[in-house]
Amino acid sequence: SGHNFEIIIIDDGSPDGTQEIAKQLEKIYGSDKILLRPRARKLGLGTAYIHGMKHATGNFIVIMDADLSHHPKFIPEFIRKQKEGNFDIVSGTRYKGNGGVYGWDLKRKLISRGANFITQVLLRPGASDLTGSFRLYRKEVLQKLMEKCVSKGYVFQMEMIVRARQLGYTVGEVPISFVDRVYGESKLGGNEIVSFLKGLLTLFATT
């Protein structure tokens, strides 16, 4: 790729065999390129970011799902976009340009679209996709946002963008195709939806 990189894999005991695959990749590519940093149980996205950041040595951090629903082919576009506008954050968007979602049933699409629409109306964050997690951050910006964010789970992604706008950080967007996982199972359930709505209302009341 022409870029120095390391891949840090945080696995919270997910049911899709991430750890086993990561161990194989570590053997193939070496532990300097593939850093497996598992945790015993699901502790939330926010704490996973903090855990991963401790091991990151670069100036920029790209965060993505490991199940290929976020395709690595978009990473060069994120890097180009960051350089083009000197952005603090570059966020992948499914809801702009030629971005899209593939492989979801109607219910899942409605939940995602609905969550995004409600968020846009209540928070007016100035970004088109608040619930996605495929993003590039300056490392120091990510650290500062982590200090400010209080949410856990899926609402965490939304709070990151809202807090970034509050703090005056710049956000660029790259249209991405999100493809639902082929292997394993999604961990999105009723509890996550309820906590998302609670978190949204909290953010609305406090920002």
Q: Mind explaining what this structure looks like?
A:
It is a single chain. The chain is α/β, with parallel strands linked by helices. The protein folds into 2 domains: 1-58, no CATH class; 59-206, Spore Coat Polysaccharide Biosynthesis Protein SpsA, Chain A. 43% of the residues lie in helices and 14% in strands. It is built from 7 helices and 8 strands. It has helices at residues 18-29, 45-53, 75-85, 106-123, 139-148, 155-166, 190-206, and strands at residues 7-9, 34-36, 60-63, 89-93, 100-102, 135-138, 171-175, 177-179. Strands 3-6-4-7 form a 4-stranded mixed beta sheet. Strands 1-2 form a two-stranded parallel ribbon. Strands 5-8 form a two-stranded parallel sheet. Helix 1 links the parallel strand 1 (7-9) and strand 2. Helix 4 packs parallel to helix 7 and helix 6 (155-166) packs parallel to helix 7. The model has no long low-confidence stretch (mean pLDDT 84). Pfam families: Glycos_transf_2. Belongs to the glycosyltransferase 2 family. Pathway: Protein modification; protein glycosylation. It catalyses: a di-trans,poly-cis-dolichyl phosphate + GDP-alpha-D-mannose = a di-trans,poly-cis-dolichyl beta-D-mannosyl phosphate + GDP. Its EC number is 2.4.1.83.
